[in-house]
Amino acid sequence: MGQHCRILGGLIWICAGTILALRPGNAPGISFRASTDVLPWLVLGLLLIAAMLYSLYRRQRALIGTLGKWAAFSAIAGAILYALGHVARQFLAGGWEPAVPTGFLIVILSSFTLAIATLRVVVYPKRVGIALLFGAVFLLFFNDQFATAWSAVPFGLTCIVLGLLMQRHEHAAKD
Questions:
Q1: Which of 1, 2, 70, 149 sees the fewest Cβ atoms within 10 Å?
Q2: Whole-prediction pTM value?
Q3: The pLDDT of residue 2
Q4: Do 16 and 40 form a contact (C-beta atoms < 8 A)?
C-alpha cells in the first residue's frame, strides 16, 4: 500500500470527527446530530485504515500466526460490512441497520487482536502494537451522535502515528 494511503484514513477521521463533534445535538427532524453527509467519509477512512491493518499483518505474517491472520482479514471484513451497511441504509430505509454496528465492532475487536499479536512478535517495535491498542480504545468510544464523536480525532491521530511508525520501520529495514 502506498505510504500516503497509510495516513489518509487517519486524516479523514480527524476531519470528519471534528465536523461531527462541532455540530449541535438535537437537530430538527433528526434524532440527535446530523451526520449523514459525513458518514461516507468515515466509511472511506475506515476502509483505508483496515487496508493499513492488513499491510501490518502482511509484513509480519511469517511470525504472527493464525491469530494475526484472523484479525487482519476480520478488520477488512468488518470495514466492508460497515460500508455496506451505510450504503444499504440509504436504499432500504434502515433495513441493514445491524450491519453498521456489527462491522464497526468487528473492526474494533480485530484491532485489539492484531495489536496483541503484533506485541507478541518482534517484527515491528513495541510502539507499533501500543499505538494500535490506543487506536482501538479510541475507536471503541466513538459514537457519531454524542460527545464521544471527539474520540475520532485521537483515533485518527493514532492511525497516522501508526502509519508513520510502520513506514519508518520499513525504510530502516531496507537500509
A1: 2
A2: 0.89
A3: 55
A4: no
